[in-house]
Design a protein that fits this description.
The chain has helices spanning about 20-30, 40-50, 50-60, 70-80, 95-110, 125-130, 170-185, 190-195, 210-220, and strands at about 10-15, 35, 85-90, 115-120, 135, 145, 165, 200-205. The protein is α/β, with parallel strands linked by helices. It has one domain (about 1-220): P-loop containing nucleotide triphosphate hydrolases (Rossmann fold, 3-Layer(aba) Sandwich), CATH 3.40.50.300. The chain is globular and about 50 Å long. The structure holds BIS(adenosine)-5'-pentaphosphate and magnesium ion. Magnesium ion binds near residues 20, 21, 37 and 39.
Length: about 220
């Protein structure tokens, strides 16, 4: 099937720790589309010390959202790149109603509406456990979890040998704030997408490959 015949313009929605990043990597691979994580874009900018990184750091550290106008401009620019012609999977965007409306406007201007929004649901206690045990590779970005997906050697990435680190916003107090920010500002998007018939819900509980199978079945 040609890329223009069936564009997949998708969003991965869900609270912090639901497994958006973990699942998005595989979903994007399955449909041969780029995986675009706004959180990853901000973390890379912070690491590089760019203007964007300096602007975003205080929000990420506090578990607050970066202002809508900043995020929306970044996404608009990213999805206009050549690799997005056949579709894309957004992870962590949109996160507020103004962001969702801005995305709809961007896509309707291009004549290609969003095809599906995958909402991953996970119980709050499980989210806190997952986030406190999360580790990531400082070199290749691979995601680990001390409970559910431990590296073979402590502190070392199985894939590239890079050192594993804990995200600054995975501290207990920041996690609590991220979860309340999600409830207040992002959870209303579930209803927004349900109303327009674009919501695909999947339980994010249980083994990672089981969640992936449920997402694929729901999308197909
Ligand atoms: P972002 O990076 O998007 O963070 P988040 O939404 O808080 O989500 P996480 O990345 O923490 O969780 P995830 O759902 O990706 O789960 P993961 O797969 O890693 O955003 C960070 C910050 O950037 C925001 O707070 C904000 O400041 C800013 N930002 C980003 N986008 C923005 C926007 N649009 N507007 C404004 N600000 C924005 O999994 C978590 C852990 O669980 C891992 O260890 C994983 O291995 C494990 N795990 C995954 N699946 C399972 C499973 N099935 N069973 C057991 N463990 C599992
Ligand atoms: Mg993530």
């Amino acid at each position: 099937m040609g890329k223009t015949e069936r564009k997949r313009l998708m969003v991965m929605l869900g609270p912090p720790g639901a497994g958006k990043g973990t699942q998005a990597v595989n979903v994007a691979k399955r449909y041969s589309i780029p995986h675009i994580s706004t959180g990853d874009i901000f973390r890379a900018a912070i690491k590089e010390g760019t203007d964007l990184g300096r602007k975003a750091k205080k929000y990420l550290d506090a578990g607050e959202l970066v202002p809508d106008s900043v995020v929306t401009d970044i996404v608009a620019e990213r999805i206009s790149k050549d690799d997005c012609v056949g579709g894309f999977l957004l992870d962590g965007f949109p996160r507020t109603l103004p962001q969702a409306e801005a995305l709809d406007k961007m896509l309707s201007d291009k004549g290609c509406p969003l095809t599906a929004v995958v909402d991953l649901a996970v119980d709050r206690d499980a989210l806190v456990k997952r986030l406190t045990a999360r580790r990531a590779c400082s070199k290749c970005g691979e995601n680990y979890n001390l409970v559910s997906k431990a590296p073979k050697k402590e502190g070392v990435c199985d894939k590239c040998g890079g050192a594993l680190y804990q995200r600054d916003d995975d501290k207990r107090e920041t996690i609590e704030n991220r979860l309340s920010v999600y409830e207040k500002q992002t959870a209303p998007l579930i209803e927004y997408y349900k109303r327009s018939g674009r919501l695909v819900s999947a339980s994010g509980e249980g083994p990672i490959d089981g969640v992936f199978k449920r997402i694929c079945a729901a999308l197909d």
